Amino acid sequence: MKKLISLAVLTALVAGCADTTNPGTAGYGSENIGEETLVTEEQTLNDAYLMAGAPRYYIGNPYKVEDVQYVPAEDFTYSQVGTAGIIPAEMNGVKTSNGEIYAMNQMVATSKTLPLPTIARVTNLENGLSTIVRINNRGPFVNTRIMDLSAAAAARIGLVNQAKVQIQVLPEQSVAVKNASLAVKEQVAAEEAPAPVVEETTTEQPVVVSSGDYSVQCGAFYAEDSANTLAQKMRKYGDATVVKEGDMFKVRIVNLDATKARSVLDTIRANEGLMPGLLKNGRWVNANSI
Fold it and tell me: What is the pTM of this model?
């Protein structure tokens, strides 16, 4: 029967300061992350939750906790026997070291040194039961234990408090989930990258300055800067200048004959969305008169 679960997908920076890593709540690492909804089925090696890409593939630098140094490393041949416990219930919903959200009802576990995420088989040596887990957080920082399991994973192998277990990394699945996590990071980085700036180039026709009695007024402003900006833009149509009359700064294309004035009027209306006016010898005239 399918269940909805949450998996974090927001990326985080893959970095750490050597000898200064500080585990999070209750001796477990944590980072900020968001969530997304996934669907899981009965546990298989194709389990959607187990094999989903994480927000980041995290190994980290060597670090110390209570004067004990740990050296994280990628080891697809890892096989160890030791004591495992259960992740405290209050950790449910807390962010993990690789940016996921810990879910106690999922088949997950912690490790002090294995990459996050790593896929491993955990076998309870006291009863022979085994399960496959997704290692997605640092811990437990208790020297007597080498792993803690989620409540769901512990129940799967009959672990009530602590038990002697064997942990075997599954190399093929661990490589697959590593690659999926790296792909998630690249996708998020691409989505967050600023769009490339494309410089727009325009080919302006050489301005031919004519001599005539007509002027085309393109705009009028109280701010001189605004008038200068428009005048600069209008110079591709002719001899654009700023004329101050009273408190206004007026942008005009001057020295036009009738034919050129008609052409400039029509072009500016079509290309610039402006409604220019027409002057002859400094006096307003009907634009339709030419």
Answer: 0.54
